[in-house]
């Protein structure tokens, strides 16, 4: 399985939830209008807010395009931020694992997981920034890029009385920005004046013959 470059990263705080609250992992920082310009780089962050006694997670998602994915994506990385990662949910050294693999011509599979070791669960409202995903797109890219999370392998260790239900983020698509058709420019002023001069010269010649 072909591997892509990876690194890992973290951040943020949230208010504690009421007892029995459900939550969904959150995506933030998507590009404007969910669009990318070929040859540009975009990123997004994955958060796990309001999870009581957060102790571990396992997240898998697929990245797909209509055509060959290497025609649209140069690299996909999972980035780490902050010396010592003080805002990560689990204290270092954490047991973070990640992988990015090319599983077919138009699909990447991304996996991330971690757990507190020794178990040191965090209350809801503690740091919730899991990973930052960065995508470098190809200059000649023409495909939309689809991100789909796998609910079958998704899991989050938590206090189930306080946070009974946790779900992965909703799937989303980053569309390739389509170039707007350019209007045909009006004739330059000198061209208009030149044509006018030709017409006047023709009229003078006709009058001279009369």
Give the helix/strand class. mainly beta
Low-confidence stretches: 5-17
Under the CATH scheme, which architecture would be assigned? Sandwich
Shape: elongated
CATH class: Mainly Beta
Strand content: 25-35%
Q: Terminal Cα separation, in Å? A: 89 Å
Structural commentary:
- Strands 1, 4, 6, 8, 9, 11, 12 and 14 form an eight-stranded mixed beta sheet that branches. A four-stranded antiparallel beta sheet has the order 3-5-10-7, with no helix packed on it.
- The protein starts with a strand and ends with a helix.
- Strand 8 and strand 9 (107-115) form a beta hairpin.
- It has one helix at 189-209, and strands at 2-3, 23-24, 26-28, 35-36, 41-47, 56-64, 73-79, 97-104, 107-115, 129-137, 145-149, 155-157, 166-167, 172-176.
- It contains one helix and 14 strands.
- It has one domain (2-181): Immunoglobulin-like, CATH 2.60.40.680.
- By secondary structure, it is mainly beta.
Quick summary:
The protein is mostly beta strands and 210 residues long. Helix content is 10%, strand content 35%. The radius of gyration is 28 Å and the shape is elongated.
Write the layout of secondary structure elements.
Elements: E1 2-3, E2 23-24, E3 26-28, E4 35-36, E5 41-47, E6 56-64, E7 73-79, E8 97-104, E9 107-115, E10 129-137, E11 145-149, E12 155-157, E13 166-167, E14 172-176, H1 189-209
Parallel strand pairs: 2-13, 4-14
Antiparallel strand pairs: 1-8, 3-5, 5-10, 6-9, 6-11, 6-12, 7-10, 8-9, 11-14
